[in-house]
């Protein structure tokens, strides 16, 4: 019976580990790969230099500074303006996509960190109980320690969540009162 319970717990822990690992893999879909590629290209110094050179050549060409080239977009460069406006929209959307992606990544990191902290808390609690039991079995006398007894109790995650939620509500109500 105890062996089956241990195997069931181990299987449950494995499922949690697999879930956490799958949550960390953000660049699996083609859309994610494309978003990362676009962000990497648009956010590079090479691309900035390409834009500066392209705009400089465009303006010089259309101001008839470059001999032998006929201007195709005379001052005030309405075609260039329209192209830059379209590019600005694309760039803005790319930045928003990146921010959303970074938000999802941060949320998963927080969830993973929380899960690791909860597991560590359970392990530490178990170690404290084992050390305390060993201490008692060895017959070592120790004065009553309320703090140790409190630390040996299992951490109630729901209680912590409720406390955090109450603090958030209090914080939000303080902000709205101002």
Report what the structure shows.
This protein is mainly α. The protein has six helices and no strands. Helix 2 packs across helix 4. The protein starts with a helix and ends with a helix.
Q: SSE order, as H and E? A: HHHHHH
Q: Quick one: how many beta strands?
A: 0
Radius of gyration computed on alpha carbons = 30 Å
Structural class: mainly alpha
* Basic shape: elongated
Number of helices: 6
What is the overall pLDDT average? 81
Main sheet specs: none
| Uncertain ranges | none
Question: Could you name the key traits of this structure?
Answer:
single chain, 178 residues, mainly alpha, 6 helices, 80% helix, elongated
Short note summarizing the structure:
The protein has 178 residues and is mainly alpha-helical.
What's the layout of helices and strands?
Blueprint: H1 2-24, H2 30-42, H3 45-62, H4 78-137, H5 146-152, H6 157-177
Helix pairs in contact: 2-4
């Amino acid at each position: 019976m105890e062996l089956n319970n241990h195997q069931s717990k181990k299987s449950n822990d494995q499922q949690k580990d697999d879930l956490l690992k799958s949550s960390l893999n953000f660049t699996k879909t083609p859309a994610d790969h494309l978003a990362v590629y676009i962000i990497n290209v648009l956010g590079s110094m090479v691309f900035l230099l390409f834009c500066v050179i392209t705009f400089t050549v465009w303006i010089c060409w259309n101001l008839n500074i470059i001999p032998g080239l006929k201007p195709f977009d005379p001052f005030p460069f309405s075609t260039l303006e329209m192209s830059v406006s379209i590019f600005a929209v694309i760039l803005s959307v790319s930045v928003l996509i990146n921010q959303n992606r970074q938000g999802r990544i941060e949320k998963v990191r927080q969830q993973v960190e929380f899960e690791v902290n909860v597991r560590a808390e359970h392990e530490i609690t178990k170690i404290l109980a084992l050390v305390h039991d060993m201490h008692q079995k060895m017959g070592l006398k120790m004065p009553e320690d309320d703090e140790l007894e409190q630390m040996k109790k299992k951490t109630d995650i729901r209680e912590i969540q409720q406390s955090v939620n109450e603090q958030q509500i209090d914080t939000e109500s303080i902000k709205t009162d101002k």
